[in-house]
Amino acid sequence: MDEIKIGLVGLGTVGSSVLKMVTENSDKVQNITGRNLSIKTVVVKNVAKHQNEVPAGVTVTDDIDKIINDPEIKIVVEVMGGVHPAKEVITALLNAKKHVVTANKDLIASAGEDLATIAKQNHCDLMYEASVAGGIPILRTIVTSFAADYITEVKGIVNGTTNFILTQMQRNHWSYDQALMKAQELGFAESDPTNDVEGIDAAYKMVILSQFSYGTHIKLSNMSVEGISTIQQEDVQQADAFGYTIKLLGISRRIDDGVFTEVGPVLVPQDHPLATINNENNAVMVTGEAVGETLFYGPGAGGLPTANSVLSDIVSVTKNIVLGTTGNGFNNYQSKVGKVDPNNVIYPYYLSLKMLDAPGQMLQFTQIMTQIGASFSQIVQTKNDDQTARVVIITHEMSKKQLNDLKSHLSKINTMSLLAAYKVL
Ligand SMILES: NC(=O)C1=CN([C@@H]2O[C@H](COP(=O)(O)OP(=O)(O)OC[C@H]3O[C@@H](n4cnc5c(N)ncnc54)[C@H](OP(=O)(O)O)[C@@H]3O)[C@@H](O)[C@H]2O)C=CC1
Ligand SMILES: N[C@@H](CC=O)C(=O)O
Ligand code: NA
C-alpha cells in the first residue's frame, strides 16, 4: 500500500495525542483512505525532553528544515501554537508544497486569508478543524451541511478553559485562581492563559466561525471582547439566585445589513441549552433561515478530542491527494456585509452596583435610568459593608448606547459605582 509520511510540529497536549492517534488508529485510516499514514519527523523546542516519547524510527529534532526539505513528507501538522514563528513555518511549508493541518486559531484568525492564498498558489490544502471548539466538528459542518442555507446567527461557548473555571466557581464554589490552575494542569489552557481568560481565544474562534458562516472577515479590533477575570463569586451566586448561569459566550449575528460579533460574560437562563454545557465542553448554536436552530456539543479542549479533529483533516487531505483534488480551499464562501449601528444591538442587562447606603441613593439611580429611557425587571439590595449597599438589577432590553450613557452618568457620581454589567440572553 502507498505510504504518506507526516511531519509533526509540536509535541505538547495536542501533538502527543496526534502521534498516539496516527499510530494507534492507522488501520481504520488505511481502510478509508487506501494509504498507510505514519509520522516520520517531530519538531519540538526541547529535543532532550521528548526523545523517549516517540516510537522507534521517528526522528525528534528542533530543526524545522528537516521537515521542509524532506520530499517524502507530504502532510505537516502544526500544533506548536502562537502567531510567530508559526506563520513563517506554515508559509515555508506551503511553499515547499506540503499540505498543512493546524489547530492554531491565533494564527488562522489573524492571517488565515493570506495563508489560504499561499496554499492555493501551491495547490496545497490548509485545514484547521481543530482551531474552533476542539473536538466538535463544526467548521466542516458549516462548509458542507450549511452550504446553501443563509446563516443568521452563530453563537456559543467556544473556550473550554473559561467554561471549566465558571463551572467550578458556580457548582463547587472554587476560587477563580484554583479553577484556572486545574484547567492548566489538565492541558485545556493555552501556554499563557491570558488569551483564554480575557476572551481573546474565544474572539479568535468567533472570527473564524463568522468567516465560515457569513463569508466575511470580522476584525478583532472591531469586536467588543471581555473575559472572565473580573467576575466575582458573588455575581455567579446572585445570577444563580435569579435563575441564570454566567457563561462566556461568543455571539455573532446578522443585524441590519451587517454582522455584529462580540465575546463576553452573559447570563444564560438555566433552562437554555447553553446553560447546561459544563466544564471544558463547548457548544455552538448555528441558526439558518431554512434549518432553524441547531446545536453542536462536545469537548472544546483536551488532547485526544482535539487530535480527533486534526485526524479528520489529515484524512480529508489524504483523500484529496488520492483524488488529485488538493488546493481547493477549506472555506470558499466570500461575501460583503455592511456596518451595524450599536444602537440596534439590544439586550437586557445584569447590573451590579455599589452605592452609599443612605436615603435618596436609589431614587437618584432610578432618575438616571428614567433619563436614559431604561427600566428594571428585577432588583435585589444587600449589605456590602457598614456604609455601602450592593444593588443588583436585571433591566428590560436596552441598547449599547443606553448602557454607555448609564456608565457615563455613574462615573460623575462618587457615591455609586458600577461593578459589573453583563448581557442577559
Ligand atoms: N490544548 C488544547 O486543548 C487545544 C489546543 N489547541 C491549539 O493547539 C496548539 C497546541 O496547543 P498545546 O498542545 O496545548 O500546546 P503545548 O504548549 O502543550 O505544546 C506546544 C508544543 O509545541 C512546541 N513548540 C513551541 N514552540 C516551538 C517552536 N518555536 N519550535 C518548535 N516547537 C515548538 C513545544 O515544544 P517543547 O515541548 O519542547 O517546549 C511543545 O511540544 C495551539 O495552537 C493551541 O491553541 C487547539 C484546541 C485545543
Ligand atoms: N485554550 C483553549 C483550547 C482550545 O482551543 C480552550 O480552553 O478552549
Ligand atoms: Na472543531
TrEMBL record:
Keyword Amino-acid biosynthesis carried by entry: yes
Pfam families cross-referenced by the UniProt entry: Homoserine_dh, NAD_binding_3
Keyword entries, A-Z: Amino-acid biosynthesis, Methionine biosynthesis, NADP, Oxidoreductase, Threonine biosynthesis
Catalytic activity: L-homoserine + NADP(+) = L-aspartate 4-semialdehyde + NADPH + H(+)
Cofactor: a metal cation
PROSITE patterns with a match to the protein in the record: ACT (PS51671), HOMOSER_DHGENASE (PS01042)
Keyword Iron included in the entry's annotation: no
EC number: 1.1.1.3
ACT domain: residues covered: 350-425
Family annotation (InterPro entries): ACT-like_dom_sf, ACT_dom, Asp/hSer_DH_NAD-bd, HDH, HDH_cat, HDH_CS, NAD(P)-bd_dom_sf
Pathway: Amino-acid biosynthesis; L-methionine biosynthesis via de novo pathway; L-homoserine from L-aspartate: step 3/3; Amino-acid biosynthesis; L-threonine biosynthesis; L-threonine from L-aspartate: step 3/5
Family according to the record: Belongs to the homoserine dehydrogenase family.
Name of the molecule in the record: Homoserine dehydrogenase
Organism: Secundilactobacillus angelensis
